[in-house]
Amino acid sequence: EDQVTQSPEALRLQEGESSSLNCSYTVSGLRGLFWYRQDPGKGPEFLFTLYSAGEEKEKERLKATLTKKESFLHITAPKPEDSATYLCARGIREKLTFGTGTRLTIIP
Amino acid sequence: DGGITQSPKYLFRKEGQNVTLSCEQNLNHDAMYWYRQDPGQGLRLIYYSQIVNDFQKGDIAEGYSVSREKKESFPLTVTSAQKNPTAFYLCASSNSGDYNEQFFGPGTRLTVL
What we know:
The structure holds 2 protein chains of 2 kinds.
Chain A (H helix, E strand, L loop, with lengths): L3 E4 L2 E5 L4 E7 L7 E6 L6 E6 L5 E4 L2 E5 L3 E6 L8 E9 L2 E4 L3 E6 L1
Parallel strand pairs in A: 2-11
Antiparallel strand pairs in A: 1-3, 3-8, 4-5, 4-9, 6-7, 7-8, 9-10, 9-11
Chain B lengths: L3 E4 L2 E4 L5 E7 L5 E7 L6 E8 L2 E4 L6 E3 L9 E3 L8 E8 L8 E2 L3 E5 L1
Parallel strand pairs in B: 2-11
Antiparallel strand pairs in B: 1-3, 3-8, 4-5, 4-9, 5-6, 7-8, 9-10, 9-11
């Protein structure tokens, strides 16, 4: 079965406290691993695409990494404006399968 | 500015009525998608289209219908056959083929009264 599992479900951090979000997936037929940010009541905003194990991409305080079975979104010294739900999705052929997301709250 | 627009932002419907949600993109993308998002659940694929005049069912197509008469437009009709239509509906588009990221519109929140 095609599954994407994200953990933790919710995470509260103090401003400046670094941490990581996890996304694990079934391996066969992977066509990209995608990370999105979603603010309440809005559409997801694209962050990163990772194509192969060992790949890393960075944007401001965010860094995404990919292994053979999971991806991590590392958040370094987060600020309150980083509070959002972070979604990952795996590509398979022309479709994406999404996880349920991690709701991140950064406390000033 | 290139992007995806959805209208309306909020929609209220009485039980038994059909309603159509609009999605337009000016990104020149070949593929378009409709998702449904419910609290505590991931985005679930309703329908997708990779080319004009062709579309495929996603994981939860029952009670929905679509058309793709123009490259830039992909309207979704929520019919009275959909048992639990209250949800947040998201439209996305991408270049066709594998590995292509999808870009999302702002969403339409549908409430059935």
